[in-house]
Amino acid sequence: MHYSLLQQSAEDFAMAAPPSPNFHLLSDVASQLTAVPSCYVRRPSDRLDLAAVTAPGAAIPVIDLAGADGPDRHKVVAAVGMACQTAGFFLVKNHGISEEVMANMLNVSREFFRLPPSDRRVTYSDDPATNPRLSTSFYPAAEDVRCWRDYLRLPCHPLDDVLPQWPPNPPSFRPAAAEYAAGVRRLAHLLLGAISESLGLEKTFMERALGPLDQAMAVNYYPRCPQPELTCGLPEHKDFTVITVLLPDGVPGLQVLLRDGRWVAVEPAAGELVVNVGDQVEAFSNGRYQSVLHRAVVNNETERISLPMFFLPPMEAVVKSPEKLIDDEHPRLFRSYRLAEFYEKFWNGGLRTQTCLDLFKY
Ligand SMILES: O=C(O)CCC(=O)C(=O)O
Q1: Which atom of ligand 1 lies closest to the CA of 306?
Q2: Is the CB of 234 under 6 A from ligand 1?
Q3: 278 vs 13, 21, 84, 165, 284, CA distance in Å?
Q4: DSSP type of residue 190
Q5: What residue's CA is closest to ligand 1, atom 7?
Q6: Which of 55, 97, 313, 89 is nearest to 190 (CA)?
Q7: What Pfam families does UniProt report for this protein, alphabetically (predicted)?
Q8: pLDDT at residue 10 above 70?
Q9: How many angstroms separate the alpha carbon of residue 345 from the centre of ligand 1?
């Protein structure tokens, strides 16, 4: 199948009807491509100016969470509040997830994308409502140009209910992913407590107001790309989450837009996780903390894997900034909405809706 696919022209590649559930996957053909098919080529005006990207540095703060439950908690809370207010992205260390658990998660993700298509046994779907799903690009139905990415999307909560739906192969996938997902959930509670306190609210206020957190992971797989300057792993976008916690594999690729308009590369040290504020914290905090544009670039040397864990309010939650955060200097910025409404608008806009939250502004 792959040979006939490669003999097709680039246009055929874009337009052909799927003869099998795995037809669409870039990872099945990328290693045999010597040029980027036209369906992945961005318009010249949309191509990324990679030479203008600032090298990683102090712009993305590193927060040591070791003291989060001790007498120095106020320092951790202040650092988290400052990071949310400035970059909107930060790195965390001493976060409670062991290097072994993170390495196992990365290994099983790599192994998953190396399985022959017939062994992946997960439903291929372009429908964001299908979970788990193995898919490609971002949302092919709403895109003119595809992203150089495949991904596996896994619901992660409640673990006992969702685990039987996860891929059975490789056999170590489920135990490794379950241990990692449970660890990141503990970290998310810690971070939301710190964010809530940094806004002058009780530690549990934000989580109680938003409802029991939903949790889903993406296993992003960006194959090596023969012409990375023509395409993009994921174009700039904001996350519709409360927060996102991303496990990197050490290959550079994540870039974040700073408040001063510069793009900066994010390159965490070994063991660090990347955290970012999503649209729901922006709405809840009445704009004090803002969701930030970020993107993933690809390269012509090696594949890259990234594992964002998305934390969301439940679909029926009403997202609304509390009265305590509204005053004459901070008038209410967003109308309240149900998460389900936000979710639908986000996916229908594809990544072209970089700022879905604008649709809810007064
Ligand atoms: O791959 C990355 O570093 C970024 C991933 C991302 O932004 C996403 O999956 O939404």
Answers
A1: 1
A2: yes
A3: 34, 32, 10, 27, 10
A4: H
A5: 295
A6: 97
A7: 2OG-FeII_Oxy, DIOX_N
A8: no
A9: 20
* Structure tokens given for 311: 């934390």
C-alpha dihedral (300, 309, 311, 184), degrees to nearest 10 = -150
Quote the CA–CA distance of 72 and 65 in Å, as a whole number.
Answer: 10
| CA 223 to centroid of ligand 1, rounded, Å | 14
Flag whether pLDDT at 143 surpasses 90.
Answer: no
The Cα–Cα gap between 353 and 237 comes to 8
Q: Which residue, judged by its Cα, is nearest atom 9 of ligand 1?
A: 308
Residue with tokens 């969301």: 312
Looking at the CA of residue 253, tell me the nearest atom of ligand 1: 3
Complete DSSP assignment for 223-241: ---S-GGG--SEEEE---S
327: left (phi over 0), alpha (psi -120 to 50) or beta: beta
Q: Residue 234 pairs with which residues in a beta bridge?
A: 296
pLDDT, tens only, 78-136: 999 999 999 999 999 999 999 999 999 999 999 999 998 878 767 788 787 888 999 99
How far apart, in whole angstroms, are the C-alpha atoms of residue 337 and residue 57? 37
The angle that helices 173-198 and 99-114 make with each other, rounded to 10 degrees, is 130
What does residue 136 show for φ and ψ, rounded to 5 degrees?
A: -140, 160
What residue ranges do the domains of the chain occupy?
37-313
Cis peptide before 21 (omega within 30 of 0): no
* In the predicted structure, residue 282 carries a pLDDT above the cut 70: yes
Continuous H helices in the chain = 2-7, 10-15, 73-85, 99-114, 117-120, 159-162, 173-198, 205-210, 279-284, 339-349
The pLDDT assigned to 344 comes to 87
Q: Which of 220, 247, 279 to mutate to test the pocket of ligand 1 (most atoms within 8 A of CB)?
A: 220
